[in-house]
Write a structure and sequence with these properties.
The chain has 477 residues and is α/β, with parallel strands linked by helices. The protein folds into three domains: 30 residues; 168 residues, Aspartate Aminotransferase, domain 1 (Alpha-Beta Complex); 247 residues, Aspartate Aminotransferase, domain 2, CATH 3.40.640.10. The protein contains 15 helices and 17 strands. The strands form four sheets. Strands 5-11-10-9-8-6-7 form a seven-stranded mixed β-sheet, with helices on both faces.
Amino acid sequence: MTVGEELQQSETIANALDAIVREIDEKRAQLTGVRAPNPGLKETLDDHLTRVTSSRGRGLYAPYIGSGVGNGALVELIDGSVKYDMACGIGPHFFGHSDPDLVATAIRAAAGDVTMQGYFQQNTSAITFTETLVRCASRNSKLRHAFLCNSGAMANDNALKVVYQKNHPADRVIAFADCFMGRSVAMCQIGDNAAYRDGVPTTIGVEYVPFFNEVSARSASAGDISGQTRHIDMCVRRLEEHINRYPGKYAAFCFELIQGEGGYNTAPREFFTALMDVCKANSIAVWTDEIQTFGRTLEMFAFDALNLGEYVDMCTIGKMSQVCAAIFTEEYNPRGGLLSGTFLGSSVGLAVGQRMIERLEAGDYYGQSGRIAQHHRAFVEQVKGLVVKHPEWFPESEKVTAPYGGMGGMMRFTPFGGKKDKIMALTKALFDEGMVAIACGHDPYHVRILAPLGVMEESHWPRIFEVMERGLAKVAG
């Protein structure tokens, strides 16, 4: 046994961990529900917000500064308030706040010799984590290798380099309209939001294909052809027009299987297969961006939930995995020198990410009867109840087919016809009433729900929607 193994199995460390977890359990047990801010701590919050604005040059999206403790779906902020966290850092905290198992995992990892691991020097946890990702990703696909990194944008950058190298001299990319890819120089150019690339020079050729649109797909049929079929055919024609305009120039089509910032938009399998078949026929890499979907849909990978594994050449993951990665087939395994990095991830991130995946695999989270699907149904029932109780909050709109949407643990909620000013006001009102949430979409806009389903019970939803109803009432006036 090495000295390092002796340290990991130390009885002294194990006893200390038990004591730390007991102390955390005792403190987090005090957080049992939503709590208003403590007036005596307002000055503390104001001081921190001033410091943030001064140091980073602009204020925060919301005055969220945590105290360092929470209890599952509840989190305490430095003003003493306690809120339901329905954003979870835009996805990473699937098991909520102050989870004893994950805290113990993190502390044990922090006792190791280095904070960060890299591609020149790494410990066994990096190897184990990589093997775990490959094993999970390869069950129903040809994905065989994974390259770790510190952010979703970097995972996407790495994926872009790999598809460029494999399909050289192709140097253009196809993506969905309203997509979000990250904020690096390359990714902000592929992402379909002009504000995110303001002042950034154009160096990447990008074309967009419309994402599946439920409104268009539900339009009247023409003869024997359904509205959905006609809509899919239109999107395929758009893709073929791009390919014909620049034949042999497209390295990849980046597929968001569920659009995140774009509005938690979903699509049937037939939509994706029609486009992916065209890609395969034209030697264009099928790249699925699962930075936000990883772990949250009805299977660990959204491409598995949609039975698309046979098509996938490249998949990028992040957020819930703690350490991000580009996962690719043997065919797309790059030559030496293309990918590397001083940091592949933190020792704590690797250990916690590994433990979270172990818990996802061991739990009954996936499938149509799994916990994630049950939570989604419970969420939908709460929305339906609000619609019946307050129909005036849900006016008819040509742009909104239903007041709820998404898949699994990626949920959206659409009151007020999806009008931007109302949705943005609602996220602020929810925060004040005791819920952390964030908006998504582009006309219509939605409230985005990324709940910590790993530690929630279905019985939590009525309490969460009590807060939702108070926030809605404030905005409705």
